[in-house]
Design brief:
The chain has about 300 residues and is mainly alpha-helical. The protein has 2 domains: about 130 residues, no CATH class; about 120 residues, Tetratricopeptide repeat domain (Serine Threonine Protein Phosphatase 5, Tetratricopeptide repeat, Alpha Horseshoe). The protein starts with a helix and ends with a helix.
Length: about 300
Amino acid sequence: MQQPIKNNLKFKPSAIKLFVLALSLMVINLDLARSDSKRLSNAEIAASLDRLAMDISDLKTQIANLTKTVNSLTAKDKESITKATLTTDINKLIEPLQLTMANLENRLNILSAEQANMQKRLNEVEQRTRYADSINFEILSQLVILENRLASLSNSISDYNSASQTDARQATNRSITSPGITYKDRYLNALSLHQKGKFEEAIALFRKLIADDPTNELADNAQYWIGESYYSMKQYQQAIIEFEKVRNFTNTDKDDDAQYKIGLCFKQMGDQKRAKDELEKLINLYPTSEYSESAKQLIK
């Protein structure tokens, strides 16, 4: 009596798998053939891989069912099937199935390579985007610095003209024989030092002016330019302290200037929330200030 067919043929699970795979792969190959004519997106590649995984899972189930069916055959059924017949039938299936499996493996490799390539391109795009954002931020920072320098120069010219007019009025009221340099001359000298980048010397002269006559109409300007000098030296914390002192001068016209620079100090220090609060304070307290529009742009 013949031994069970499973032992006679040394029937390997892979042979059964190949037999069943042939049926399902015909559908998969048709789907893949249609997709060859166009370039797949990353999402389509992922979907294809998911479908293949599901098909493989289904095949495993079918293989288990087939194995169960074969094992359930009666002894008479098993004896009626000859080894030669089974071998011939299986060989007929194996050859085209092996070709199909090779094509499928090749297609899977192509899909994997395509997905890797698209992921690489996506990473390159993300890197370029981050680089562009960095460049844009740098340009914005440079524009803010340039705007600040222009505003500082405009203020110094305005202060110079204002001081000249003040000196002209004072000249009509003082004696021709009045000795010594005037307050305005000392102020303009300090302002000149600031514009030349000699900030420490400028600060010393501005402080002396305030100490000598804190009620002079140029004293608040002197206090403001102390803050500007520290700002130019990037000593932002000290600059904030000096700008806040401007409010202590009665009838000052530099309060909105100082408030604007306080906001810029916090921005330069990286405290964006506090910078936004200070700039909004400028807009609310001084809605007609020449700096209101710039403040609105900065807090967008």
